[in-house]
What does this fold into?
Amino acid sequence: METSGGATALAPDHATLYMETPVPSSSRRITLKDLAARLDISTATVSNAFNRPDQLSPALRDRILREAKAIGYSGPDAKARSLRTGRSRIIAVILAESLTYSLNDAVASELLSGIAEVLDAHGHTLLLVSGRQHSNRIPDSASMADGFIVYGLMPNLTMLANLPPQRPLVAVDFEFEDCPTVHVDNEKASYAIACHALTVLPQRPAVIGLRLTEQACNGRITAEYRLLAAEYTITRHRLIGFRRAFVERGIDPAQVPIWNVEENTFTTCVPVIKEILDLPKDQRPDLLLCMSDRIALTVLTLAEQRGLRIPEDMRITGFDGIAEGQYRAPHLTTVRQDSVAKGRFAASMILGKEPMAPHWLKTELIIGETCP
Amino acid sequence: METSGGATALAPDHATLYMETPVPSSSRRITLKDLAARLDISTATVSNAFNRPDQLSPALRDRILREAKAIGYSGPDAKARSLRTGRSRIIAVILAESLTYSLNDAVASELLSGIAEVLDAHGHTLLLVSGRQHSNRIPDSASMADGFIVYGLMPNLTMLANLPPQRPLVAVDFEFEDCPTVHVDNEKASYAIACHALTVLPQRPAVIGLRLTEQACNGRITAEYRLLAAEYTITRHRLIGFRRAFVERGIDPAQVPIWNVEENTFTTCVPVIKEILDLPKDQRPDLLLCMSDRIALTVLTLAEQRGLRIPEDMRITGFDGIAEGQYRAPHLTTVRQDSVAKGRFAASMILGKEPMAPHWLKTELIIGETCP
DNA sequence: CTGAAAGCGCTTACAG
DNA sequence: CTGAAAGCGCTTACAG
It folds into this structure.
């Protein structure tokens, strides 16, 4: 008598039972073929029972489903099905940042929510991939995806070039070759918020940027730093918008100091902001245009701790319009970009519900008390 | 001459080229078999070139890889491989809450970070599934996963019963049959923080709980509500811990009012907290034990807006120890549970790096200025 | 309404 | 070090 692999110590006792009834032993997975054999019908019919109810009589279908339940067959194997049909019903989201950062960042989380919502509504599922740790290719398992949504400019574009061919690819917030992009007009939005902020003419305006420089710079951007070209970072577009507004108001952009933070997190922002807030009063900016809400909110927190009055002592603007900015008083003056909508749209494109074409979402100026 | 589907307008010009060299036309996907045929070697050897470098000479392998690149073959198809090997290298995380909630909740995000980090380090990938929308079974695509991490008690446990058999399952923060759980001792942690809070004896202690009742209740829990049994919610354990501390300090728990919120979000908490803060001064609690940091932080924000002094007018404690609670002054007094570590451990178990056995993580009392 | 047969693209003993 | 062959579990024209 052969023993089947994985049998427990009890197996021998049940051997005769197994010999009489051809139920596959618990060690082997039950397949559609087993089910067909037990019912003495073709595998095609069993397959139809699960996938095309209209292709067989209700009575037969019922018998099949009942028997499936009885022998513990939980439906066609997804791996086999995906090979056969060529589709996995999985969409991969490739994040330019680390997963840890992305999952804890409000903007990325909102984007993912929007994507997940649409995928879910269409029976698809979301696979999370970081573009950071893996150098040249996504992990093997991710290449099962039917399509790819790429969020943010990857440090290494060869990963995108190595994606399995002929599968849809949508870029979010950056341009990549001729693949369609979902994004907002960062320059226009920044120009708008700067124009609003400059209706009250500041004595000492300043900017806190996000990853603006070629070499890492967590602090004031001095002459020795070179700014990234606009195709490498959306924040460069925001800077262009700010500068255009400065010029229009008769302020020489070259005279406006720019600080930079390397990562959009509380921890990374704190030292830079402290440096600014601890400046002597006559050098401390009275207007701070921040390139994200996370930065602006951190300014707000630290400024309050120092007893600064907002907006009397310092006017502050953000960018993004995350929920947290509206949770507290004073409310943040900011530009809202609807990241959930961005995600929804990208997902709709990948699923073919929207044409694969560049798409711009509108932004909205939100005037709060930090810069009325 | 046959035209191949998907050919561009230029194709006819290249027809003779295609006829001379048997490169698969661009319309058909290139397979390992094609590559083997072109090199006149077996598919086994090509497969080995990608999967088992030690099984063939470096020279041959090099030739294979070079030719692969030349014809645009980007490696073995993941779908076929997963069928053949039986493994997908995908781990599904099933979230009891909606994806939108989970992605925007700090505790869930930290858990996911921890999971992603470990999966990534072992070449696995994370599939996100919500346990909410789908009634009885996970979406088909999710059943490709090699293992399942389930976070939080599902509204419908039959989904877990319908998971493909014989694949590892780890529960986080709840108990499910005999599958291993990663969790913290909520009762003990709550007892500890309540003991700390009660070292200063309050006049009017109160509790803000999270989903404590059988029927939805967003407000004060009155006699008509029944509390959920402890097996249905971890917050019930937290309440038990609080009550034990009350009793020890000579406070009758039945005299301590309990408010409840239905969801751990700013928006849902606000009306409940306003109700409490707007109580006449002599009825307003002077100690508020909150069952999450999100609740406690919202109390803090709204209390400050009303000009209440924290902790003089009201002492506040939280639960979870999310980063946001330490970003602002006053710092939150809370219990830190290391959700990242929880995620790491659950992922390690699923991958077989840790024994599949119940695991308790320690918690840590953090004493901030909201309840010194 | 049902079934026989081919084949999706790979990996893996196994033999040489 | 290399190759011939089986087969993972399904779905899909196609024929009846």
Q: What stands out?
A: Chain B has three domains: 11-83, 88-183, 186-338+362-366.
